[in-house]
Description:
The complex is a heterodimer of chains A (241) and B (84).
Chain A: H1 3-6, E1 13-22, E2 27-33, E3 45-51, E4 57-63, E5 73-78, H2 86-92, E6 98-105, E7 119-124, H3 128-140, E8 147-153, H4 162-165, E9 170-174, E10 185-186, H5 191-197, E11 206-212, H6 213-225, E12 233-238
Parallel strand pairs in A: 7-8, 7-11, 8-9, 9-10, 11-12
Antiparallel strand pairs in A: 1-2, 1-6, 2-5, 3-4, 3-6
Chain B: E1 3-5, H1 10-17, E2 25-28, E3 34-36, E4 41-45, E5 48-52, E6 59-66, E7 69-73, E8 77-81
Antiparallel strand pairs in B: 1-4, 2-3, 2-8, 4-5, 5-6, 6-7
Amino acid sequence: MERTAVHRRLNWQLARVVEGVTETARTKSIALDAIDWPGHLAGQHVDVRLTADDGYQAQRSYSIASAPEDEHLVITVQRLEEGEVSPYLTETLVPGDELELRGPIGGYFVWQEALGGPVLLIAGGSGVVPLRAILRHHRATASEIPVRLLYSARTRGDLIYRDELADYDTVVTLTNEQPQEWSGRAGRIDSAFLTETAWPPAERPLVYICGPTGFVEAIADALVTLGHDPSRIRAERFGPT
Amino acid sequence: MIALDGNAIAGDFLEVFGVDLTAALCVCAACGMSSVVAEAIVYMGGPGRVARCRGCSELLFVLVTIRDVTCVDLRGIAGLDMEI
């Protein structure tokens, strides 16, 4: 990590919405133009703050979906039905609107070439967002370090970045649906699944797991039981806050 | 309340200390376990964010923000090691 980038105060800044892209029925990617954006590392997140007319403020964290090399800063937001912030971001926001954000945030759940690999990315649901940033960064820098994504989603319709990810070394599994003509896997990611699809512990893969808390815990436990070094496993848990 | 992890409070630490603390090694004052701040169990609710040790569940630290002032109580941390 560039240390000069670490030592700075975190200030709220305005970013303008450039484009909204519907990824699935519940998720939308929002491309932003942030003039004072200092750049980020693949895997980091931003905080977004909304202020109502009466001054009430709500703040949420969203993973950055774009690579540092991409033209715009992109976040992908999943709409939570009871949410305070996500329905606004996914349904009301239009290009030209402004958002308050601060970041980039987080220096642990990041991947850079110098950290090595092989890199094993494991996503549950919208946990794929920061891992997509890592994949894009990996490709943008023409890294030759092996990288593979294991991606678990409920149904085919829940798969975010489906077409884009088909172009990477990706193993997709669906937990709640087995559609006809589905060539991917079915069921949860467990020990047997990991034994088949992950690099063995002897190759010391650097693992990034992102998903809901239960998903992350189950997979981290399974990996350690299989003999993977806990210090090579990085996790980010998310949930409604 | 859903338990998250230390990544969820990275922004608060960055705002207060001006440095990312998620990769810092944090030593639990109760059980002595050393692990990165990102691995702490974090509960986000109300004005306070509570972090607990993944080894023994004891309190590590609490952050409370009221009217734009953040108070950080580090009572459960015996040590914090980080690269500068």
